[in-house]
Design brief:
With 244 residues, the chain is an alpha/beta fold. It is built from 9 helices and 8 strands. The structure holds zinc ion (ZN). Zinc ion binds next to helix 8.
């Protein structure tokens, strides 16, 4: 049941056909995990919190630095030196006290990834390196948890929704990580908000639009392109789980 304050808080989205109170209740009963609370994670966490996802776990092992502030919008000048997950938890809880925010100050490794994602309905990528992404990808395939990949560089970004047992996985196509090339703050915001939209649709039982498809955004010419992703038939991560 939604109480009076929830009916008011979520009024604008409750009016959307096929969303309604049932969709809102599903969101409220959901647990999403955001791994990496940088530019991508700050934006997806903000919108998933505002939308009313009941429980959000945020995972990061960094502290706030001055050079983060051009894009990691949950962190302000006064937060420099603080743990990102602690700052994010405080601000997200102020945005929407109805959402349970669990901060995890840890690096994701092969050893801890399964326990971190356990019990989640969706994992949202906020990472900045492909090694950790592949660790998360494998764990999500193993635990059958949808994984929404997002990556950015300069004015470009991409995302896809990986549904274990149905779509290709990240190890099938290895998106090239382009770290160190710089990034404009709006780029992760654009990609992360599309990730949040995919996550919300998944959580309320709608079909994610980017299952098996890679969306490419190019901010230089404002073009969005969507390509089918081919499955690698001999992918060591997902091929045993996919129908032939
Ligand atoms: Zn694969």
């Amino acid at each position: 049941m939604l109480d009076q304050s929830e009916l008011i808080r979520y009024n604008r989205q409750l009016k959307i056909p096929d969303f309604g109170e049932e969709g809102q209740r599903k969101l409220k009963d959901s647990h999403a995990i955001i791994i990496g609370m940088g530019g991508l994670g700050c934006a997806s966490a903000t919108y998933l919190t505002a939308a009313g996802v009941g429980h959000i776990t945020i995972v990061d092992s960094d502290t706030v630095e001055l050079s983060d502030l051009n894009r990691q919008i949950l962190y302000w000048h006064e937060d420099i030196g603080e743990k990102k997950v602690t700052v994010a938890q405080k601000k997200l809880s102020k945005l929407n006290p109805l959402v349970q925010i669990t901060p995890l100050f840890t690096k994701v490794t092969e050893e801890n990834v399964l326990s971190i994602i356990d019990g989640a309905q969706v994992v949202v990528d906020g990472l900045d390196n492909s090694a950790t992404r592949l660790v998360v990808n494998s764990a999500c395939i193993k635990q059958k948890i949808p994984y929404i990949y997002g990556g950015v560089s300069r004015l470009r970004g991409m995302l896809t929704t990986i549904i274990p047992g149905q779509t290709p996985c990240l190890a099938c196509f290895h998106p090239e990580g382009a770290g160190g090339l710089g990034v404009l703050g709006v780029t992760p915001a654009i990609i992360a908000n599309l990730q949040a939209l995919e996550a919300i649709k998944l959580l309320i039982g709608h079909s994610p639009a980017l299952a098996g498809k890679l969306l490419l955004f190019n901010g230089d010419d404002m073009k969005f392109q969507v390509h089918e992703i081919r499955r690698n038939e001999s992918c060591p991560v997902c091929s045993p789980t996919l129908p032939r």
